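Q: What would this complex look like in 3D?
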Amino acid sequence: MSDKQNAQKSAKIAAGAVVCVESEIRGEVTIGARTVVHPKARIIAEAGPIVIGEGNLIEEQALIINSYPENIAPDSEGVEPKTMTIGINNVFEVGCMSQALKIGDNNVIESKADLGRNMILTSGCIIGACCQVNTCEVIPENTVIFGSGCQRRVQTERPQPQTLQLDFLMKILPNYHHMKKTVKTTSAVTPAKN
Amino acid sequence: MASLLQPDRVLYLVHGEKKIRSSLSTLYFCRYCSELRSLECVSHEVDSHYCPSCLENMPSAEAKLKKNRCANCFDCPCCMHTLSTRATNIPAPLPDDPSKTAMKKAYYLACGFCRWTSRDVGMADKSVASGGWQEPDNPHTQRINKLIEYYQQLAQREKLERDRKKLARRRPYMPLAFSQHTIHVVEKYGLGTRLQRQRPGAPITSLAGLSLKEGEDQKEINIEPAQALDEVEPLPEDYYTRPINLPEVTSLRQRLLQPDFQPAGASQLHPKHKHLLIKRSLRCRKCEHNLSKPEFNPTSIKFKIQLVAVSYIPEVRIMSIPNLRFQKECQVLLTLTNPVESITHVTLVGCEEGDPEDINSTAKVMVPTKELVLAGKDAAADYDELAEPQDFQDDPDVVAFRKSNKIGFFIKVVPQREEDGDVTVSFKIRHDFRNLAAPIRPSEEDDAPTEAIWLTHHVELSLGPLVA
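A: Here is my prediction, written as structure tokens for the whole assembly.
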């Protein structure tokens, strides 16, 4: 990473994204277009940058955190910052916590679900409410994890993208909340001209 | 200390066929027998059937016909949650003009918990919101129905034989009763004109009606016996080598909830209609009075008759326990609450040596010897500030506090056993009970409207472990 990227401390919010001022965004976070971040959502990039794609819906009290693994102290050297990537059309429902480093497209993480750092979600997965999943595995496509015992099943079609909800929120949220300023960038990789 | 209010701390003894000890909140009180009743000494009767999701009432006959299943609601075959109907807009060609397409609504079933949809099993979307969904037919239904008919006929025949034998034995002894029975039977089946003439030594006329009914049903049902096959279908060749697709395998529970098909693959799990629930009423076995009768309406949780013990018997609760030490006397604070509106007098008596009901106590208890007086429950006491506080002369050594219909009193406990486990004490509580259900006799003198009878209950308290 170039020095300029290391020096970037503010979030890069693409045009078209709706990010409320009351949300807490710390560290190097890139948010794509048509993404809605509700107030009181928290996106914290401690141990590396977070790149969030387009069309995502991050609801209140959701926590997306790129944190240091438990056995590594924050100040030790030789730790490579790993980027957390989140694809498009994902839904992070109220109160969920996600530490997974790679999340694909069209996933739904339901309320109070808990994703561990070593999980990799492909696309179309649904992590049910209050399910804690922190195994070290790749979840196959269209998997549903539900129930107190985290039972799994495969559904035949992926969950629909929440376009209706996103459109509604993008119209209504600015009426009631102040928004964070967006930055015009062509792509998330090029350094921002500040 | 919410743990002191747990229901299993204070147990009342119920005298029935079995001696049952359970908390007052789970017991009923038959005010005609003036005794406590538990769930095991009452008879349970089905009151009404209803569906738990659409709350629709169903008469018992209809419920039996539909095998106790609701007609409108479905259960998810995957997680047994209730299925909800969702609609999508599908472009479909208009019937008049095949070239134009209009948006039509198509309905499918979906589960909100595990995200199962009816499309997963291949069920087509229906154009009607409800009533379009059918359960798949069991291929063996015809054979099963035939077998059921045959066995019903067989059972009826056996019952007739039994009745015939019974009446044949009684015949020389009760000829009078007989003729009345004959008339009654004839009227029952409406076969007055088809009576057979009674011939001496012939089968009894009273059975004429019964045998004629069978005669109407003359066609005998014959069933073919089940045939055993020598050859069984061989297993597929890759049965041992094919890798298992785990999401496709059904769990035992999912399989057994559909006993007709018991599918091994998740793609054959069809939704089943939802099971009905019942409301039950309880009846005292001795006096046949109803102890609990719920309302007929499924949306109402009230009762028409509710003779629960907590509204008749004073309730003992533990308020605070000091540190219990082996063979040291400790004072435990208990409360007694009066549920009725009249003044109640309560006497506590310790259990004597060798009391057959006293099997669980591990400590000696000294209860107050004086009679405790409890004020009646006054619903308006909170709002009435001008009410004069009733003056009871309370011994401060015995009564700790008094608040409307509740008093707190002390008992002295000396734990006798040093082992692990809870310290348990038991005593008897004797109180007066005014039976308001008894009919009011026309009193010639100025009698009290209701006379009090004295009831005694055996109470056991679990006070917790010993402190070292």
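A: To summarize the key features: Chain A has two helices and 21 strands. Residues 1-7, 187-194 of chain A have pLDDT under 50 and may be disordered.
Q: Very helpful, thank you.
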